[in-house]
């Protein structure tokens, strides 16, 4: 059962990074711009982030297996649409919308099923190591595999590859058993779903508008923050009325979980932000083709692969907090190496040492961060926390791509300077993650006990 779940995480993470090496090919074929391709990539990550919480909630209503299967089919349709897209609009529809929605539906069940099927901390850590490791490998190998396919055949063939992998996962998943029955009578908070999704889209859209107008950027960021504030006010009003909200406000009152969520957000922001910046720099500025760019990212792939394979043994020997801290320290060193080594050296292989260290660092901390978050809550809340966890991670991916990518694209007139600024910003973001990791408890915290059912809860039931 773990194989199709891990493969699903792999292909979704692969989709988030493989387009980075196709920037020039897509730009020329569809007669668009680098910014147009960046919008497509960021929107895919953002749609996932915006819908992950509502889709995580739907797993209780529709069932984990059903959501997983539906997500795979929708993703597959999106991959086919992307492969035959005649212009940027259809590519955004297929890649950003259909694949984004499919991913949001299929990823929460992956983590819920792993949490339910593996009960003790060590076996769950090993299972999360496989799934999270495949996610990291997917993100790291996306440029290499995507680059090879693009150079040998076409960028369109990379989407055909995704569709074929989806069919294999559907076949492998036919015998997956959902240990918890679906509850079709479970209420769904539609207003909360709309508010949370719109708020996140507007907020990240503000970051992407930075190169157009600082006033527009400020307006969108403030608007997004206000909409999200309205979402939390709506959640509290439903809870006071004894109704079930999209997301329990209780999930934000656990300090351990909150800090681990910050580390998840930052990990993916740094990984995907670095991937876009380095890929765009190599193709647009140094004129490397897709396969050459992908080969350079082999260093990050090897780093993530080695650290992911060691996730199980490391979890048995070291505390989760220690692994996360070490991961951030190594990642920050990798960013510094990327800045120092590349400066003044035209050879692309000077990117390899820094990318390798970033791969090692991210791979070391991916699994412990997920494990800390999921293990902080009882089975009753796994649907909600899984959706929140995946949403936070994908929001980090879209945030990193939007922030660092916008800095690079806006400064292509002086690419070396804009590259340096983008990497410095990512290093600062990584320091925020390190601070959150340091604040994690040094010893494991037992899952919170379910809240006792009061009159309001009884009425809602």
Index terms:
461 residues, 18 helices, single chain, 78% helix, disordered C terminus, globular, mainly alpha
Describe this structure in words.
This protein is mainly α. The chain is built from 18 helices and no strands.
| Terminal residue distance | 32 Å
Give me the secondary-structure category: mainly alpha
Relative helix content: over 70%
Question: What is the residue-averaged pLDDT?
Answer: 86
Shape: globular
Number of strand elements: 0
Number of helices: 18
- Estimated radius of gyration: 21 Å
- In terms of DSSP E residues, the strand content is under 5%
Main β sheet profile: none
Could you state the order of secondary-structure elements as H and E? HHHHHHHHHHHHHHHHHH
Low-confidence stretches are 452-461
Quick synopsis:
This protein has 461 residues and is mostly helical. Helix content is 78%, strand content 0%. The longest helix has 32 residues, at 121-152.
Q: Any chance you could write out the topology, listing elements then pairs?
A:
Layout: H1 2-17, H2 23-29, H3 34-62, H4 64-83, H5 88-117, H6 121-152, H7 155-172, H8 190-208, H9 214-240, H10 255-285, H11 290-296, H12 298-309, H13 311-317, H14 320-342, H15 352-375, H16 382-410, H17 415-438, H18 455-460
């Amino acid at each position: 059962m773990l194989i199709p779940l891990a493969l699903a995480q792999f292909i979704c993470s692969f989709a988030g990074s493989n387009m980075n090496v196709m920037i020039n090919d897509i730009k020329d074929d569809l007669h668009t711009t680098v910014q147009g391709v960046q919008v497509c990539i960021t929107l895919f990550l953002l749609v996932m982030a915006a819908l992950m919480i509502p889709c995580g909630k739907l797993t209780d209503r529709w069932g984990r297996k059903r959501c997983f299967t539906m997500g795979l089919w929708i993703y597959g349709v999106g991959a086919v649409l992307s492969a035959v897209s005649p212009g940027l609009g259809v590519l955004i529809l297929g890649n950003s919308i259909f694949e984004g929605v499919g991913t949001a539906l299929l990823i929460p069940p992956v983590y819920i099923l792993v949490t339910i099927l593996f009960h003790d901390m060590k076996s769950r850590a090993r299972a999360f190591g496989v799934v999270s490791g495949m996610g990291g490998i997917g993100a790291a190998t996306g440029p290499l595999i995507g680059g090879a396919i693009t150079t040998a055949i076409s960028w369109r063939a990379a989407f055909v590859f995704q569709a074929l992998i989806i069919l294999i996962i559907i076949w492998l998943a036919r015998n997956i058993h959902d240990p918890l029955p679906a509850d079709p009578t479970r209420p769904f908070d539609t207003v909360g779903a709309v508010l949370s999704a719109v708020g996140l889209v507007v907020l990240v859209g503000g970051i992407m508008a930075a190169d157009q107008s600082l006033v527009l950027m400020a307006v969108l960021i403030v608007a997004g923050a206000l909409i999200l504030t309205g979402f939390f006010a709506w959640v509290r009003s439903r809870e006071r009325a004894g109704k079930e909200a999209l997301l329990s406000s209780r999930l934000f009152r656990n300090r351990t979980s909150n800090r681990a969520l910050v580390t998840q957000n930052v990990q993916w922001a740094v990984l995907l932000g670095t991937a876009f910046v380095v890929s765009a720099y190599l193709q647009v500025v140094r004129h490397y083709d897709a396969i050459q760019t992908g080969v350079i990212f082999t260093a990050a792939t090897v780093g993530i692969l080695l650290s992911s394979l060691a996730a199980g043994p490391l979890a048995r020997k070291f505390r989760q907090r220690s692994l996360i801290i070490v991961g951030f320290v190594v990642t920050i060193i990798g960013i510094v190496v990327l800045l120092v080594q590349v400066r003044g050296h035209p050879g692309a292989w000077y990117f390899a040492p820094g990318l390798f260290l970033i791969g090692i660092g991210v791979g070391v901390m991916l699994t412990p961060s997920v494990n800390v978050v999921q293990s902080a809550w009882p089975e009753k809340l796994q649907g909600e926390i899984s959706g929140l966890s995946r949403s936070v991670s994908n929001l980090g991916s879209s945030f990193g791509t939007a922030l660092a990518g916008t800095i690079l694209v806006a400064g292509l007139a002086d690419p070396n300077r804009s590259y340096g600024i983008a990497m410095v910003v990512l290093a600062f973001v990584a320091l925020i993650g390190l601070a959150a990791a340091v604040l994690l408890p040094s010893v494991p915290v037992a899952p919170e006990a379910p809240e006792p059912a009061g009159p309001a809860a009884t009425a809602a039931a």
